[in-house]
Amino acid sequence: MSGIGKGTAVSSVGKILQSKGFKVQAVKIDPYINVDAGTMNPIEHGEIFVTDDGTECDQDVGNYERFLDENLSSDNYITTGRVYQAVIRKERNMEYKGRCVEVVPDIPNEVIYRIEKVAKKSKADFILIEIGGTVGEYQNLLFLEAARMMRLKKNQNVLFILVSYLPIPQKIGEMKTKPTQTAVRLLNEAGIQPDIILARSRLPLDEPRKRKISTFCNVQREDVISAPDVDSIYEIPLNFEKENLGQRILKKLGLKARKKNLTDWKKLVETIKKSKKQVKIGIVGKYFGSGNFTLTDSYISVIEAIKHAAWSLKRKPKIYWISAENYEGRLSSRRLKELKKYDGIIVPGGFGKRGVEGKIRAIGFCRENKLPFLGLCLGMQLATIEFARNVCGLRNANSTEFNPKTKYPVIDIIPEQKKFLREKKYGATMRLGAYRCELKTGSRSWRAYLSSNPLTKKVNLKKKYIVSERHRHRYELNNKFRKILEKKGLVFSGINPERNLVEIIETKDHPFFVGTQFHPEFKSRPLRPHPLFREFVKRCIKK
Ligand code: GLN
Asked: Could you report the per-residue pLDDT of 372-401, keeping only the tens digit for each?
C-alpha cells in the first residue's frame, strides 16, 4: 500500500548496490492517468519534485536522487498517462505499420521500451523499477504485466522484490503475516513470484515469522528481509545490509561485488544518531491538513534539506509546522511574537491566495526582529512584497497572482505565461527545471555558496560565479521595481544572466534574510547539504 516506504526501499537497495561498485538508476512508475504530477494538489499527492530537465514528478524521484546522489530526468518517471500518450502518438504516426494496436501487448511493450531506454542511455548495471500502488488493484495490472514479460524476455536478469506491510493490531499485539501471504498470491495471479520480500513493519521480524513467510510465500528464509520502522530513513541501507540483502541480490544474478564501501553513509548515520543539541526551525505553510491528520509530505525536500544542513553542523533538527492562517485576522500580532520560540523560519513554495497575508506578516516579523529567514520561491516573492509595502512604502503592493489589479505589482506574471493561462494550458508549462544564476560578488549568498563548495580554492574569484538551480513558477520579480527596492536596501544577489531575472534577494543588517526564486531544496543531498540551507541553519544556531 502507499506510504510504507517503497521509494526509500528502492533508494536503499540502490545505495547498497552502488556501494558495491555498480552503476545504478531508478525508475518510478505511477499508475495514475496524469501525464505528470505537476497538475496535482500537494495535499493529495505530496510534494511535486522537479528534476534538472524540468520534469514535475513524484517525490520518490527525489528520494532516488538523494540516496544515489545522481541527477535524474524525465526518463526516470513513467505514468499511465505518459505511456498511453506515447502509444497513441505512435499510432497516429503509423509507427505500428497499419496493424491493430492493443492494450496487451502494446502498452506493456511501451513500458518495457521506456525502461530499456533508461538502461541504454545511462549504461547502468542495475535499473531499479518501482511499481507504485498496491498489488491486486486494477490500476497497476499493465505494469505488472510488463514486469512479467520483461522477466520472460531477459530471463535471469530480472529480479522481483515485494515490499509488504505486516500489521501489528494493537489489541492482539502480534505481527500478522496473512496480508503478505495474500499479496504474494495476488502477485502469483499476475504471473510473478517475488524473489525477495521486504517485510515492512513497526518492529523487526522474528524467526517464526520469517519462517512462516518463507513457507507460505515460497521464498527462501534468507530472502525474507526485516524492514522495521526507523528514526531516519538514511539508516535503511545499513539495516538491509545487516540482513545481507546486497549479497542475496548479487548471488541471484550471478554477480560479485566490485568493492565494498558504505563508510561515508555509516558516518552520516552515526552523526544523525549522535547529534543531540537541537536547532528549531518553523515552517510557515499551508499544505498540512487532511481531516484529522497533519501531513508533511508536501514539503519533503524542504524537510530533508533542513536535516542535511543541520546534521552537517552536528545538530538535531526539530521542525515545527505553523499554519500561515494563524497570522491573519485580529489576534495575529500577539501570535506573531510566538515566532521567537524558533531559531529560524522558512516560508516554502506555494500557489493561490490562501494563507498569503499570514505568511507576509510572519516574514515582516522575521525581518524586523532579526530572526533568520529563508524564503523559497513563493517565500521569496512574499518577502519582496513585504519589503515593498513596509520598507519602500508601496501600499498594498502585491503579486498579480493574488491581486491582478494591484497598483504596485512587484511580483508579476512572466510574459510568456499569460498565454498558457489564457488558453488553460496548465500542464508542464511553468518555468521549470534548471536555470543559471549568477551570484553577486561579496553578497551573503555568494559567500554561502563559496564556503560550501568543496572546490572553493578552484573558484576564480575574478570570474563570474554561476550556479544552476531548479525552478517551478509562473511569476517573477518585476524588473520595473528593482530600482526602488534596491535603493531601499534590498540586494539582488542572484540574477539569471540570460533573461535578467532576479533569482535571489537578501537584506543587509540582518543575520540571515534570504529568498530564492528557485527551489534549492531539490538539490540538497545527505552528504552534500545545499549551501543556502547550510548557511541558514548556521545562523539559526548562532541565534
Ligand atoms: N505561485 C508562485 C508562482 O507561480 C510561486 C510558485 C512556487 O512557490 N513554487 O510564481
From this structure: 999 999 999 999 999 999 999 999 999 999
From 308, 473, 510, 519, the catalytic residue: 519
User: Cα dihedral angle (325, 328, 329, 331), rounded to 10 degrees?
Assistant: 90
pLDDT digits (tens, 9 = 90+) for 259-296: 877 999 999 999 999 999 999 999 999 877 666 666 77
Give me the average pLDDT of each 10-residue run along the chain (543 residues): 90 97 97 94 87 97 97 97 98 97 97 96 97 92 96 87 96 95 96 97 96 98 97 96 96 92 94 97 84 76 97 96 89 86 97 94 97 98 98 98 97 96 95 97 94 69 89 98 98 97 97 98 97 98 92
**For residue 349, which atom of ligand 1 is closest to its CA?**
8
Instruction: Check residue 319 and give its pLDDT.
Output: 95
Ligand 1 pocket check for 355: Cβ under 6 Å: no
Q: In whole angstroms, how large is the CA radius of gyration of the chain?
A: 25
Which residue's alpha carbon is nearest to atom 7 within ligand 1? 349
521 classed as catalytic: yes
Ligand 1 geometric centre to CA of 42 (Å)? 13
Residue 519 among the catalytic residues: yes
Those residues whose C-beta lies under 8 Å from the C-beta of residue 538, and which sit 6 or more positions away, are 309, 313
User: Per-residue pLDDT tens for 115-174?
Assistant: 999 999 999 999 999 999 899 999 999 999 999 999 998 777 999 999 999 999 999 999
Question: Looking at 217, 366, 377, 437, which residue is catalytic?
Answer: 377
Specify the DSSP class assigned to residue 516: E
Tell me which residue has cell 491493430: 100
Q: Residue 469 Cα, ligand 1 centroid: separation in angstroms?
A: 15
Q: Is the CB of 377 under 6 A from ligand 1?
A: yes
Could you tell me what percent of the chain has a pLDDT over 90? Answer: 90
Cβ neighbours, 10 Å, residue 337: 10
Among protein residues, the one with the nearest Cα to ligand 1's atom 6 is 473
Which residues lie across from 496 on neighbouring strands? 501
To the query of whether residue 57 is one of the catalytic residues in this protein, the response is: no
Q: What is the DSSP string of 68-136?
A: HT----GGGEEEHHHHHHHHHHHHHTTTTTTSPP-HHHHHHHHHHHHHHHHHHHHT-SEEEEEE-S-TT
CA distance 430 to 36: 13
Residue 380 CA to ligand 1 center (angstroms) comes to 9
512 lines ligand 1 (CB under 6 A): no
Q: In angstroms, what is the span from residue 403 Cα to ligand 1's centroid?
A: 14
> pTM for this structure?
0.95
CB atoms within 10 A of CB 315: 22
Residue nearest to atom 5 of ligand 1 (CA): 378
Yes or no: say if 35 and 82 are a contact pair by the CB < 8 Å rule: yes
Task: List the grid coordinates of 518.
Answer: 528557485
Verify whether ligand 1 is closer than 6 Å to residue 378 (CB atom): yes
